[in-house]
Amino acid sequence: MLQLGTLGGSMAKPNVHGLPQHLRKDEAGYFLDYFVQEKGLKKRKRVRLGQIPLTQAKRILAQNMGDMAEQKYLAPDKPKVGFFQAVDSYLAYSKARKKSYLRDTYRMKWFKEFFGDRPLDSFSSDLVEAYLVRRREKGHRNRPDKVVSDATLNLDIAILKALMHRAVLNRMIEWDPIQGVKKFKPFFRNRTLDPEEYQKLLENCSGHLKPIVGLAYLTAMRCGEILKLRWDQVDFKNGVIVLEAEDTKTQERREIPLMEEMQELLKQIPQTLPCCDIGKHQKGELGKPFSDLTDKEKRLDNSYVFTWRGHSMESVKTAFRRACRNAGIENFKFHDLRHCAITNLRKAGVSDSVIMSISGHKTHAVFRKYDRVDREDRRAALRKATDFNDRNMTGAAKKKNEQVTA
Asked: What sign results for the dihedral spanned by CA atoms 60, 65, 67, 71?
């Protein structure tokens, strides 16, 4: 419960405008100025009254002084903002600044269905917990039989918290009513492929899937980065893939080295006519006349490296599941290929900072989730420690013998 602080102190003295205690004025008009104790911390609160006459401001002050004496929290007398308005505000921000706008839109449907257009200040931790219980019971919208994981619920919590944070910044609400909601303890996947499994997976990949899997396994690129890769980003001369800031999840530019194996794989992918060149064919600026193009070639959008039937791909989930099933590989997702690449780079002796520059991780905390330490790593560590101890013991024994001989 919020408690009002002491009414005395410097604010009890008349200010430069000669106003009474706790009444202040600036270019925006009069406001009440006071302190409260919130979770053991002293916080200054200001309640705007607006451009009103001084007599009215003094009257409002007098009315609230009684509440101050009773240690009540003062709030501005303004219309309450509903949840739907906060949702619209957050989605506008998400569309302008985030790559996960579609995912956010999907989750807002769940939020609206459960919370309705209730006032923001009516939210509580218990209400959010009730939503999480309901969300888990109903399952996924398209697959109700599929269990909703803690990771999925953590994303819901994160977006709800971000929504409330934006509402506070936009002064829709004075404070965050769900700040006490805690996320579930995260479960980090620890699945990688050994070399034999990887080769078996490649053997069972369809033609269009094989280079996509190979690129993910060798470079730690994200699935979205791979599927949206364009030919103008592939620099065969310098042996790199160049991802601009707008192409990455973290919105930071990075270069990914292309080794000979991956270059040969990419060079085998046919590059046909990009749509942007069709206009040049119509004008006769390119060698092949537009009239000689087939209907299929006219529809192709091959500015992308990886296409399916001449068009860019949104997902390879179905093809990848089929390849894993045919290869007898269980409990393995496409994103786990990123874990494989990072783990292999670390085992090869590459420093964390270099790996992070390739994978695009910004913090060590997230990076460590992808770096799997397995049984062989632990054995190798103890083997090194044993060799080190043996050398020390041998050196100590030799030194002692030399002393005895002397």
From this structure: positive
The per-residue pLDDT for range 144-172, each reduced to its tens digit, is 777 888 889 999 999 999 999 999 999 88
Strand partners, 304: 230
116 & 224 share domain: no
Tokens of 271: 């590059």
Same domain, 249 and 360: yes
Which residues make beta-bridge pairs with 308? 311
Instruction: Report which of residues 368 and 195 the model is more confident about.
Output: 195
| Paired strand residues for 30 | 25, 50
Residue 81 burial class via C-beta count within 10 angstroms: exposed 0-12, middle 13-18, buried 19 and up: middle
Q: Which of 210, 216, 159, 205 is nearest to 183 (CA)?
A: 159
pLDDT, average across residues 273-300: 46
Q: State the virtual CA torsion across 146, 151, 156, 161 in degrees, nearest 10.
A: 170
Task: Give the DSSP per-residue string, 299-348.
Answer: H--TTBSSEETTEE-S--HHHHHHHHHHHT--S--TTHHHHHHHHHHHHT
For helices 125-138 and 150-169, angle between their N-to-C axes, nearest 10 degrees: 140
* 165 in the same domain as 110: yes
The answer as to whether 174 is a domain residue is no
The answer as to whether 400 is a domain residue is yes
* Same-domain status, 44 and 112: no
- Give CA separation, 194 vs 203, 204, 209, 327, in Å: 15, 16, 19, 13
Residue 177 resides in a domain: no
Full residue range of the structural domain in which residue 60 is found: 3-69
260-290 burial, b at 16+ Cβ within 10 Å, e below that, comes to eebeebbeeeeeebbeebbeebeeeeeeeeb
DSSP designation for 80: P
Count: domains in the chain = 4
